[in-house]
């Protein structure tokens, strides 16, 4: 995620008027930009699948009885979800505006 994100950041423009066109530029004009973008998006989805499996395993084995560790894990889960939301709205596309 970090490596693909850095490659995407090299060509991304964060201005609200040109953000979507810079994403289009990455997909169309940058060599293998489409592949890097889709690896980044699908990598985030795979990360969340692994994260939810980890939470499910913790629930199955009763790890929630260790309250301090469990609460830190829940805080980390919310931090990761907030980070993913920010990455979701970053391209300023129609889904970013209307959900």
UniProtKB/TrEMBL annotation:
It comes from the Eukaryota. Keywords: Electron transport, Heme, Iron, Membrane, Metal-binding, Mitochondrion, Mitochondrion inner membrane, Respiratory chain, Transmembrane, Transmembrane helix, Transport, Ubiquinone. One of its GO terms (biological process) is respiratory electron transport chain. The chain crosses the membrane at residues 38-60, 72-90. It comes from Mus musculus (Mouse). The keyword Transferase does not apply. It is found in: Mitochondrion inner membrane. The lineage of its organism: Eukaryota, Metazoa, Chordata, Craniata, Vertebrata. The keyword ATP-binding does not apply. It holds the Pfam family Cytochrome_B. GO terms for molecular function: electron transfer activity; metal ion binding; oxidoreductase activity. The cytochrome bc1 complex contains 11 subunits: 3 respiratory subunits (MT-CYB, CYC1 and UQCRFS1), 2 core proteins (UQCRC1 and UQCRC2) and 6 low-molecular weight proteins (UQCRH/QCR6, UQCRB/QCR7, UQCRQ/QCR8, UQCR10/QCR9, UQCR11/QCR10 and a cleavage product of UQCRFS1). This cytochrome bc1 complex then forms a dimer. The gene is cytb. Residues 1-99 form the Cytochrome b/b6 N-terminal region profile domain. This is Cytochrome b. Component of the ubiquinol-cytochrome c reductase complex (complex III or cytochrome b-c1 complex) that is part of the mitochondrial respiratory chain. The b-c1 complex mediates electron transfer from ubiquinol to cytochrome c. Contributes to the generation of a proton gradient across the mitochondrial membrane that is then used for ATP synthesis. Its main location: mitochondrion.
């Amino acid at each position: 995620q970090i490596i693909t994100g850095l490659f995407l950041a090299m060509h991304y423009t964060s201005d609200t008027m040109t953000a979507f066109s810079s994403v289009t530029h990455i997909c169309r004009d940058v060599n293998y930009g489409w592949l890097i973008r889709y690896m980044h998006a699908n990598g985030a989805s795979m990360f969340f699948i692994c994260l939810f499996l980890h939470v499910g395993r913790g629930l199955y084995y009763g790890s929630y009885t260790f309250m301090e560790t469990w609460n830190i894990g829940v805080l980390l889960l919310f931090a990761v979800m907030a980070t993913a939301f920010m990455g979701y709205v970053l391209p300023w596309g129609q889904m970013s505006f209307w959900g």
